[in-house]
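hey team, just a heads up i'm posting the complex here instead of the shared drive bc the drive is being weird again. everything in one block, sequence lines first with there labels, then the predicted structure for the whole assembly after. its two chains so it's a bit long, scroll down
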Amino acid sequence: MAQTLGVITPQVMQVETPLTLSSGAVLPRYDLTYETYGQLNEDASNAILVCHALSGDHHVAGLDADNKPGWWDSYIGPGKPVDTNHFFVVCSNNLGGCRGSTGPASLNPETGKVYGPDFPIATCKDWVNSQYELQKHLKIPQWAALIGGSMGGMQVLQWAMDYPDQLRHALVIAAAPKLSAQNIAFNVVARRAIMSDPDFHEGRFLEHNTTPKQGLAQARMLGHLTYLSDDLMGTKFGRERREDALKYNYEVEFQIESYLNYQGEKFATKQNFDANTYLLMTKALDYFDPAAEFDHDLSKALACATAKFLVVSFTSDWRFSPERSHEIVKALLDNDTDVCYAEITSEHGHDAFLLPNEHYEGIFRAYMKRVLKDIPSQHDETKK
Amino acid sequence: MAQTLGVITPQVMQVETPLTLSSGAVLPRYDLTYETYGQLNEDASNAILVCHALSGDHHVAGLDADNKPGWWDSYIGPGKPVDTNHFFVVCSNNLGGCRGSTGPASLNPETGKVYGPDFPIATCKDWVNSQYELQKHLKIPQWAALIGGSMGGMQVLQWAMDYPDQLRHALVIAAAPKLSAQNIAFNVVARRAIMSDPDFHEGRFLEHNTTPKQGLAQARMLGHLTYLSDDLMGTKFGRERREDALKYNYEVEFQIESYLNYQGEKFATKQNFDANTYLLMTKALDYFDPAAEFDHDLSKALACATAKFLVVSFTSDWRFSPERSHEIVKALLDNDTDVCYAEITSEHGHDAFLLPNEHYEGIFRAYMKRVLKDIPSQHDETKK
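-- predicted structure starts here --
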């Protein structure tokens, strides 16, 4: 039976050397907040880095101070697919985030005021560079694996291209090699909802002691719309109303309406997600396009990757559909890269990558056994 | 060669008898603004009623006073599939609209002030009832055909159920027998964008000499997102940027962004669409579910229909996908109703129903010949 990880205390890496971002902007200093689970082995060869999605953070497993389980707790822990009895797992909040790492809500050391809109837009490349500092900080010579879903999967791709010899395995789940025009369009509408909220104050809402709750809630509602499949929404909510009789007014009436409103409010109010971080993360997604520097040829872009890959997609995911994963797999095969691909049947849409699913768990677990086998110091043990 | 219809002058039917709506609300009086094209024949047997979609209006063909062609001008006119050399075509702005028919922007005769949010929510059923008044007003004993796309297609279904002996043919294009949870969800987010705009003033924006432009533009952008297919957006805009270099800020950068912004602004500012009408139309769509009164059995709901049907869907339409049309066709077949079904290959998504397409036009034209044949007085002529 799986044990539990218990309460995890986040740690902070403080980097006092300046970081030049893709945009050319320089961060004079920054913090990366991270959590770790399991024990680093003697030769530091069992370390795994997990990259989070758009609204995720470093709290990926175990419980936080409020006893809230991590966002991927069902897959990471003792006896779980990413088994913390064997692996030392690390997850950090991305630069530009709002959960402890330096971001728009942090103090700008040069002005003594909150960055707000002055925080430079970070990219996937910048995140990877800052995580490489974390790798050195933790004295990890090479990651046994990088794992990420959605935006996190893109980050894993970026790692495999920018630091090919720093990872042995790359697990790219429910991701895409770049956003489609439709993906960008959803981000455009979400950003507009935030930026047109009168409480946005051109990004200086914290200085005005407010937050653009309405806009952020709308952006989140729109996000949820793309995370769930049409079928699942149908199964889960259908056209059910909260009351039998039609209201003939604009109050909340359908269950799906009530669900989306709840998700929006929770995100903007209870979880207090920073609106500037949301803008930044969506823009980093829009910009992600590693093939662009290689004549828009993804195969060329991935030619330098030496890691072994697991690519996973979900049948009902229409945000990053299986076809988008096929593009990645094709590019890897063009380079004779070692790649396993699994297309998991699920009705849960893009959200499926976070949810329990027997087939998915089986593949994930089997692949992680392979990752374990490839750990030099564990080799003898796993041979038994 | 097709002639042109020239400039068309809208007409207004003024109804001074009260109309009770589905909600129970009573409209003391109302106007329906409409246009007609072609000539009504002697026994008034060649009349066709076209029903418009969410943001459509009565100006379906010919030119308006500003020389703007109607929204379906490519399919309606002399020599076109709906041939005005043979048919007398009528199109009216729906009740609750903002293009001349009585709606939220009209004066409430009981208060002398603009209705605004006090205008009652109308339903598909109400639109059909008011259009039946128009039919009587025009002294048309029976429509040769009812034609509608998207929301207009739903209205045609409603006509076929509520006034089965008032139409001989029903053309239901790119429609659905009810909205899915996902369809409703998009409407929920669109309405929220409008209603949370500080210029909305709880619907009394006209009294405040303003309009919720931001919210309406966002709603329209979201609409456009669902009208276009992912593929078409990819072909048309891809990830193209307005300038080569990345901006690393939140200014308009991608072509799709620029397109959506333009569509949003145009709708909210230049076309000055009434925000309360937009709310009303989306709510009427949410409510449309004729099977609900028949144990959620669409076959039972359509059992009374006596018209012959043409049902058309488009392969890349993900708003009302071909599967939604299949539901309608199945229900009609369950009743041994005469139905033709065409699934048109198109990459244009939901918008396809408005756009030129050889296959679509061929089917439309062929079916309209059948409609013409079924006109009693034209029978001899078409036999030749």
